[in-house]
Amino acid sequence: QVLFVESGGGLVQPGGSLRLSCAASGFAFSRSTMSWYRQAPGKEREFVANIISTGGDTNYADSVKGRFTISRDNSKNMVYLQMNSLKPEDTAVYYCKTPSRSEWGQGTQVTVSS
What we know:
Shape: globular
Order of helices and strands: EEEEEEEEEE
Oligomer: single chain
Largest sheet: 6 strands, mixed
Strand order of the largest sheet: 2-10-9-4-5-6
Distance between the termini: 40 Å
Strand content: over 45%
């Protein structure tokens, strides 16, 4: 059973930081690209960032480039998203996923507000 458990979300002021974590299980994590997506209220889910299996290459949406950093720990089956200089438009539910599987986790809510 493929499972993603996201955590680390919360309420933060504009300009603040959060670190999201995702625990993955049920598939060959160390051989899989991992991605973060987000869905804001009333909007479609959108790509945020991904990282290849070795961690040697990453990609980011233009809206988060330079502010967010994706990383992974294959020894723990974990993927992370460090989010700095947060803006109100970053408010969304954040999800992790591997492109090779259709399952989604429950997500973690990030709210950026003063």
